[in-house]
Amino acid sequence: MILKNDRAFGAVITRLINRENLTRQEAFAAFSTVLNNATSDLQQGAFLAALTAKGETAEEVAGAWEAIYELDTAKVKLDLAVAENSGTGMDEASVCGTTHCARIRTDAKTGRGTIDQFTIDPVSLGLSCTGGDDLRPEPDRDKETLRFVRLMNNKENSPRKDAVAINAGLDLYTACFAEPVGCVINAFEKMPLAPGKRLLIFGGGTMGLITAIYARQTQQAPGEIPLDRYGPPVVYAQ
Description:
Blueprint lengths: L5 H12 L6 H12 L5 H14 L3 H14 L9 E4 L14 E8 L6 E8 L20 H12 L19 H4 L2 H13 L8 E4 L3 H12 L16 E4 L1
Parallel strand pairs: 1-4
Antiparallel strand pairs: 2-3, 4-5
């Protein structure tokens, strides 16, 4: 479903300029028109600018997503494990306050999408909000040693329990990988991946390469790691 002419599409732009919201079906039709290149570049740009200036509603996002899924998304079926690095184009969750999130899901039978909105509170994840003073070492070396032992034995209840302990002799270029490598290890512990099973990793940046290297080192998915040369890299560990 697309809007039949520039006048109909222009009417949608006028409504957005007047800060009127579109229904899910109207948003689907407008984005379908853009994706099919069925109106001028000027009209397409004006539509996107007006929508951004007004601010998108959940209904408009859902309609846009349905159009993209129907017209501009390749549907593939893979007989292998898949790891997708969702950090691409996504803001990180903040440990200093609440993070507002939205999740789009598709019903497997109807193909209809739904949007769930929620917040992530670091305290609810067991993290502590703190300042730098709480993480400074104790002046007394013996007290600091005892505190470190408690931390290593998971008996430390201060905000330090959320910190990553790093060997003082480790250079910072190596130490900066402690957190991303920890995320990869945690993912593999939760991923039902049998040894030797093929693994497809979307995203060939830092996290994608660490994922592939870890899979090879643990022999969960040994093999070569070619990169897609036509766009955002796709890593294959097979």
